[in-house]
Amino acid sequence: MCRANCRRTLSKQAIRINGFGISSIIPLRGAASVKRRYNTSGFKRFIATAAMAAPAGETAYPPELPAFLRQSKTERHNKYVDLERAQRNRLLAGSQTPPSAVASTTPAAASPPASQWHRITNDPAVAERNRYMNVEPYAANRVKLNVAEGMCDYINASPITLGKRRYIATQGPKNTSVSHFYRMLQEQTGEKAVVVMLTQTHEAGREKCFQYYPLVAEESPMVLQPDTTEVKGTEEEKQAPLGEVELLDQSNGTSPSASHDLATLDQSNPRIIHCSAGVGRSGTFIALDYLLSLLHSGALDHLTTADSDPVAETVDLMRQQRMMMVQGEPQFNFIYDVLREQFLARLAGGGDGGVRGRGDAVGGADG
């Protein structure tokens, strides 16, 4: 049995996706349109532009450029090493916590103190839902499905909060977890769901994400049978519709939220961001979406000393909410490159520097 928290049981119902509409999602009623937007920009073009804006080596940047964007490669490397050390310490602390402290139904009073970094391990039901065995949400900060008593409420997804912005970082759905993914959309976003897809379904001959949406409107309906995990609630709550799913397909490359498409999407609910593992590309995208919003609002203009580095601080804050966010030093450095290009473009009076709709800030590691 899954050690995740459980609630009470109901009947199961199939998911049926008609063209771009979802006619029924466990146990939803009514149509829900799925709009898919594409970004076909290339990674190499953006890298070339960023390289011209911020060449390697000693560069005479204007004094108006915030100090954290004038750091040397060595200084950034040292900060990434510190971030990796902090992450290893968190994972070590979590692995030393008895599983019963967080994951079981043992009363808290009878359990040893739980670490906030503990993960739900040694549970076959949970392991089967994970795409990668080494990427899991922290037990104290995970999305829980609203399920029946005795059923598993687990999905590999973590709520991420940065300032006033809310996200959910999750792995690419597996063929056995599509029903969990859509249930999460219903429960966490209500009538309007914004999903940002940062991976192709297959890369280098390996599946990275199950195709959880129809490719064309004329396609035959996709029918997905759920497992026995069922929602709880009143009959009215059980029949609540999922109104609209806005799927922004950025698997071929984009510059996060310098993108006009993302900026114009609904922000009243947390944005669902996924790649394959839900950590590398997803973390890079979320960091840039948040930091670019600060940059364009002028909130970073006053950072004239090296004492404050919002990039390192943001990555550390995300990693406290989900492991491995921004996976690898190239992705970490890319965040600086994008912010530097954008800030230099502002100084030159060029708006967003032509980054909208170009490039890929999420390439690199598998996540």
UniProtKB/TrEMBL annotation:
SUPFAM superfamilies: (Phosphotyrosine protein) phosphatases II (SSF52799). PROSITE patterns: TYR_PHOSPHATASE_1 (PS00383), TYR_PHOSPHATASE_2 (PS50056), TYR_PHOSPHATASE_PTP (PS50055). Residues 89-120 are annotated as: Disordered. InterPro entries: Prot-tyrosine_phosphatase-like, Protein-Tyr_Phosphatase, PTP_cat, Tyr_Pase_AS, Tyr_Pase_cat, Tyr_Pase_dom. Residues 128-342 form the Tyrosine-protein phosphatase domain. Residues 95-115 have a biased composition (Low complexity). Residues 245-333 form the Tyrosine specific protein phosphatases domain. One of its GO terms (molecular function) is protein tyrosine phosphatase activity. PANTHER family: RECEPTOR-TYPE TYROSINE-PROTEIN PHOSPHATASE (PTHR19134), TYROSINE-PROTEIN PHOSPHATASE 1 (PTHR19134:SF449). Belongs to the protein-tyrosine phosphatase family. Non-receptor class subfamily. This is Tyrosine specific protein phosphatases domain-containing protein. It comes from Hortaea werneckii (Black yeast). The lineage of its organism: Eukaryota, Fungi, Dikarya, Ascomycota, Pezizomycotina.
